[in-house]
Amino acid sequence: MDPKWNANNVTEAMNLLEEPAHTIKSTGLFKExxxxxxxxxxxxxxxxxxxxxxxxxxxxxxxxxxxxxQKVTLEVPHYPQDDTVLADDARGLIKNSTAQExxxxxxxxxxxxxxxxxxxxxxxxxxxxxxxxGKIIDKDGSVIVDVYKKFGIEERIRSLKLGTANTNxxxxxxxxxxxxxxxxxxxxxxxxxxxxxxxFLNALQYHDSIKELYEKFKQGADKYIDxxxxxxxxxxxxxxxxxxxxxxxGTNADxxxxxxxxLPTGGDLFHEYLAPADINxxxxxxxxxxxxxxxxxxxxxxxxxxxxxNALPLCVRPDLxxxxxxx
Length: 327
What we know:
The protein is of the alpha+beta class. The chain has a single domain, classed as phage-related protein like domain (phage-related protein like fold), CATH 3.90.1690.10. The chain has helices at 7-16, 23-27, 105-131, 147-150, 169-182, 198-205, 211-219, and strands at 31-34, 39-45, 48-51, 71-75, 79-86, 94-96, 101-102, 135-137, 143-146, 156-159, 191-196, 235-237, 240-244, 259-265, 270-274, 291-296, 302-309, 311-315, 322-325. The chain is globular and about 75 Å long.
């Protein structure tokens, strides 16, 4: 096999491939945090959840001060994928209809890597949606850790009473934001994202107390709407971006259509820890978003492809997340 197809080069190439513009990913809410281990040690402090710094083995650890402080070790989920490109897969394929250039094996492998990256990106987005609800979830939606329960934090749930015509929705939204801002404990924020189900957003936009504001928003929507249709901001009001959650995963992580998640932005609140791959080239090195490795099939009859991502999204202040119900 061509030496250029080593794991380092193929991994770099995979990370350069286009990544689907999933809703949460596109907001930039989660900040990637590469780590050189497969575990994340979290301690509960007054200001929220924080990482425990790593030290040499045998060194004295930092004390956990105060009563009822918990330290939890979380293993970064490992999401591997394997596929194959056979030698015959490139036979007769056309890369450019004008030049009639036949597709080479490298092109077929590249297309396969793109497909595999798309699936891994979808898996990461699913995990981010779980983290926005205070949960670390597996790919089937099962809960690995409920952060609220683990650290004794009460989930903040509020109703906008959108089914009642005389509700002052604007006043309620402002009240719910102020509740969060008062609990920041030094965290600097600059706004909010409301990740919405479609029914919730429709009820909000056309509520008697909001409809006129929404109509004015539509008239000047070009000032607010992202041109990428998959990340369209459906409504911007009072420093809140109301965005429809477009992805449906078919698991219990899916956002209910009549609910929304009010998420503060601007602070260092939403992390996505990236662990290294279980591939010799990358052990004990800082993690990357995606990994890929190629190996020739027996008798050189094609290429085996292995890809993976090792990502743990986590909100370190789940007490600042508000679940909004339409009614």
